[in-house]
């Protein structure tokens, strides 16, 4: 029986939603053991948090430099093998680069970096290190999204002719209308978040999802973004038109000021023979729509689903699975890669997905700034 992969975490302490999501996901398949990390900028707070979640404090470090130095003093069989980066965006690149240069595998929150240039540098660093690198575009882990991907790849809906993805939230509404609050949240600070808020935070999820399920790559984008106030430097709403080819087009509608919305992420792919639709707030239902036929609803756990979908299903049909399970499937795929086991390429987003995401963010902002014109995505 193989030993558990030793996991370290950077960030995610306190009442962080993303922290508990990663911790639960990593424990889901008994593949990982959380042994330490840096949960908070203050070591004393990190130690308190480690005690709270029930892990030893001997491998809680004051910063990443100390983690790298001390872990590399340990025998290879004992040191941390993979580190999850759950910090604000501006720390992703320097942390990931340092970890890769020192032989650690990396699981990184999105967006992978704050610039496309940084993403390409990270790509070269990862190639030289040979380490596994995953970006947590969480929703690709849902069983019915994986079923959607496999149905499209098998030709079930025919040639794709229209893609429509909506990601609406309303969480920033109480912040954006208060001058002091919008000036003091890191999400709206370009120095910490990068050049985009809405596109960088949720638009990139939509972009990655489109390329994941469709198997197509976006060639050009035309964006119209909304900043709402003159003193607000980052977009909080946007509509982005997409071109995949001359006759295949799509749209991303993303907003963080959609009042009353919680996490309304809807993915619709229309082919010449059928359409598929999935809604994140009802993730167990994949809708199959065909001309002249009643709409069909596919659900996880049934033998009519693909192997990739069934591998990501942990419960019998009729038992809801959610975002923890989705992230858990990504961690499971990374574990297989680290352990050099066979795995499906759709099991976790890679550094390529992170690079594509950063390229998309920058091109969307460029398109808007140039007066809403078409801008080419790099191949």
Describe the structure.
The protein folds into two domains: 5-138, Rossmann fold (3-Layer(aba) Sandwich); 142-316 and 350-369, Dihydrodipicolinate Reductase, domain 2, CATH 3.30.360.10. The longest helix is centred in the C-terminal third of the chain and has 19 residues, at 351-369. Helices cover 35% and strands 21% of the residues. The protein is built from 13 helices and 14 strands. With 379 residues, the chain is α/β, with parallel strands linked by helices. The protein starts with a strand and ends with a strand. It has a nine-stranded mixed beta sheet. The radius of gyration is 21 Å and the shape is globular. The mean pLDDT is 95.
Mean pLDDT over all positions: 95
Based on CA inertia axes, which overall geometry fits? globular
Largest sheet: 9 strands, mixed
Helix/strand structural class: alpha/beta
In CATH, the topology of the largest domain is named: Dihydrodipicolinate Reductase, domain 2
Helix content: 25-40%
How many domains in all?
Answer: 2
The low-confidence parts are none
CATH homology superfamily of the largest domain: Dihydrodipicolinate Reductase, domain 2
Question: In percent, how much strand structure appears in the residues?
Answer: 15-25%
Contiguous helical run count = 13
CATH class of the largest domain, named: Alpha Beta
What is the CATH architecture descriptor of the largest domain?
A: 2-Layer Sandwich
DSSP strand count: 14
* First and last CA, distance: 42 Å
Order of helices and strands: EHEHHEHEHEHEHHHHEEEEEEEHHHE
Rg, rounded, reads: 21 Å
* Strand line-up across the major sheet: 13-12-11-10-6-9-8-7-14
């Amino acid at each position: 029986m193989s030993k558990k992969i030793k996991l370290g975490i950077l960030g995610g302490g306190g009442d962080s939603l993303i922290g508990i999501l990663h911790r639960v996901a990593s424990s889901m398949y008994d593949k990982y053991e959380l042994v330490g990390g840096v949960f908070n900028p203050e070591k004393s707070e990190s130690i308190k948090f480690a005690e709270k979640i029930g892990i030893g404090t001997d491998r809680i470090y004051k910063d990443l430099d100390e983690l790298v130095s001390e872990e590399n003093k340990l025998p290879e069989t004992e040191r941390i093998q993979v580190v999850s980066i759950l910090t604000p965006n501006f720390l992703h690149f320097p942390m990931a680069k340092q970890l890769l240069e020192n032989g650690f595998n990396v699981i990184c929150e999105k967006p992978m970096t704050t610039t496309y240039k940084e993403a390409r540098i990270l790509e070269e660093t990862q190639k030289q290190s040979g380490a596994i690198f995953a970006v947590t575009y969480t929703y690709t882990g849902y069983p019915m999204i994986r079923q959607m991907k496999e149905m499209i790849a098998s030709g079930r809906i025919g040639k794709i002719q229209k893609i429509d993805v909506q990601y609406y939230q309303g969480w920033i509404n109480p912040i954006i209308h208060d001058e002091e609050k919008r000036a003091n949240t890191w999400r709206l600070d370009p120095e910490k978040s990068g050049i985009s808020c809405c596109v960088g935070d949720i638009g990139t999820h939509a972009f990655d999802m489109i390329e994941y399920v469709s198997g197509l790559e976006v060639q050009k984008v035309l964006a119209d973004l909304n900043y709402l106030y003159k003193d607000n430097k980052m977009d909080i709403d946007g509509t982005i038109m997409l071109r995949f080819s001359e006759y295949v087009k799509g749209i991303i509608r993303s907003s963080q000021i959609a009042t009353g919305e919680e996490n309304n992420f809807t993915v619709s792919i229309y082919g010449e023979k059928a359409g598929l639709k999935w809604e994140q707030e009802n993730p167990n239902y994949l809708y199959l729509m065909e001309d002249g036929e009643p709409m069909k609803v596919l659900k996880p756990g049934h033998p009519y689903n693909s192997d990739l979908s069934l591998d990501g299903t942990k419960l019998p049909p009729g038992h809801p699975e959610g975002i923890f399970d989705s992230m858990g499937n990504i961690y499971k795929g990374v574990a297989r890669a680290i352990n050099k086991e066979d795995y499906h390429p759709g099991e976790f987003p890679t550094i390529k997905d992170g690079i594509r995401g950063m390229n998309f963010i920058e091109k969307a902002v460029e398109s808007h700034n140039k007066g809403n014109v078409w801008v080419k995505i790099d191949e």
